[in-house]
Each structure stands twice: as C-alpha cells, then as structure tokens.
Design a protein that fits this description.
The protein is an alpha/beta fold and about 270 residues long. It is about 35% helix and about 25% strand. It contains nine helices and twelve strands. A six-stranded mixed β-sheet has the order 6-5-9-10-11-12. A two-stranded antiparallel ribbon has the order 1-2. It has a two-stranded antiparallel ribbon with strand order 3-4. Helix 6 packs across helix 7.
Length: about 270
C-alpha cells in the first residue's frame, strides 16, 4: 500500500475531522486509511490538536475506551467573531435595504454561503458544550443559518412549518401570538420528526419580540423535547419588551436614523466575549 508523508496525513486528518464534527473517529480508521502505525497517527493528531488550539479553530478531544477515538468540536477566534459582526453591520447599513413597511431586505445575506458559513460557526461554537439532538428552525429564511449550525454540531436539522403538508404525515400544530404584531399564528411539525425526551436549540435569522421562540418552546413540549438555547443572527433591540431573555445574537438592529439608514451594532454577546 502507498505510504503518505506526515504533511499529507495531517492535512487529510484535519479535513476528515472538520467534515465530521462531534463524531468519534476510531484511530483504526486512520491507521487503515493511511497505512500507518497507531503511534504515528497519534503523533499526527497531536499536531492537528495543537494547530486548532493555536488558531482558536476549535478543539480535538480524545475519547478513551474500545469504541473511542478522536472528535472535532467547532470553535472560532474571538477576533474573527468581532470582525464578522462589524462587517455585517456595514453590509446591512444601506438605504437600499429598506423596503416598504420599514423592513430590512436580508434575503441575499441569508443566502450568501460565505456569510452563513461564518455566522453558523459563530453560533454553533456557543452551543458546542451542550449535548443536543436537534437544531430547530422555522421556515423559511432562517433555514440556511440553522443548517450550518446543525452541520457544525453534527446533529439533525428540524424545520417547523407554518402550515401542515400532506408529505409530513400526522402533525402536531399549535397556535401562538406574535410578539410584535399580536396576530394569532400557527406552527406545525410532523410527529415523526423528533424522538421523545430529546434536547434542542432554536436558531433563527431575526428576532423581534420573541413570539416565535415562545411558540417553539410550546411546540417542543408537545414532543417532550427540552429547549436548551436560542441563537439568532440579528436581534431587533428596538422592541424593548421581549418574550424571551435567554438568547444570543450576533448583531443588533435599533431602527432607522434621520437619513433612513439602519442603525446596527455588534451585539452584547459579541462585545463581551
């Protein structure tokens, strides 16, 4: 079998670990793949672990036991978080983003793979210490962000719908009151979506008053699932009274100034890290 240099092995191990976050990979997999001794692979993994630590790119944990191995847990450098938040504020703070009804046009932001990849890593890193089964979101604009968070945490994505679909089979539906408009709304989820006694986090693109988040909490109770955390990309702090208090955001939106420009700033979470 072909022999590989240390540089080749380290590069490949890094890629494999990053593509399989929170998944335990047995050392025998690497020894077989690279035709190398277990002691050699262990030395390679030490290099990968030190590199991740030096650049605050996450961490590699060793899991002992017969079924053990190593796994990658995502992370991101604090400076990179602050730089990203500041750049996002500048990107959104443009007059042409204001659309009728005083809404911000964010579809291009939420569909930009570079932006969403970085935002997803930021949010995922904050929940990486939690033992969760699912990332939950509500259709539609929050789906790309929630998918990235789920991918980085190595868990399944659950998409709550506004109305039931025949392809979903039997569903559970609840009514909830929008925190901003006070309108009665509905959310629904297939009974096959989640296992009982699971743990989840809720990820969304934009938070106004938190009515959707409260709806998610109540819907998850119907599945005996516990919500452990909430993360959003943009928090509307112009809405002073929130229905939820325990959540994190990346940037904050505080209305428009006299020049009809969006007022955005890095969030309290970003400023405190």
């Amino acid at each position: 079998m072909k022999k590989y240099s240390r540089n080749q092995r380290v590069s490949a191990i890094t890629k494999i670990l990053i593509e399989n976050p929170n998944k335990i990979i047995n050392l025998n997999y690497f020894t077989s793949k690279f035709n190398a001794a277990k002691s050699t692979i262990s030395e390679d993994i030490v290099i990968v672990k030190d590199t991740f630590s030096s650049f605050s790119m996450g961490k590699v944990e060793t899991v002992s036991g017969a079924a053990g191995g190593v796994k990658y847990i995502c992370g991101i450098d604090k400076k990179d978080i602050k730089d990203f938040a500041e750049e996002l504020c500048l990107l959104i703070n443009k007059k042409d983003r204001i659309i009728p009804g005083d809404f911000l046009y964010l579809t291009d932001v939420m569909c930009d793979p570079i932006i969403i990849s970085k935002a997803g890593r930021i949010l995922a890193a904050q929940f990486s210490n939690l033992d969760i089964d699912y990332v939950v979101t509500v259709e539609t604009k929050g789906i790309p962000l929630a998918y990235e968070v789920a991918r980085m945490l190595g868990v399944e994505l659950i998409i709550v719908r506004r109305q039931s679909m025949v392809t979903e089979g039997s569903t559970v539906s609840i009514n909830y009151v929008s925190g901003s408009t006070k309108a009665l709304q509905t959310m629904t989820l297939s009974k096959k979506s989640m296992k009982a006694k699971s743990k989840s986090i809720f990820i969304d693109d934009f938070m106004k008053a938190g009515g959707t988040a409260i709806g998610i909490v109540n819907l998850l109770k119907e599945f005996d699932s516990e919500l452990l955390g909430i993360g959003v990309l943009i928090d509307n702090i112009e809405m002073k009274k929130k229905l939820v208090s325990d959540y994190i955001s990346v940037v904050e939106f505080n209305g428009f100034n006299e020049n009809r420009e969006a007022i955005l700033q890095t969030s309290r979470f970003v400023n405190e890290i």
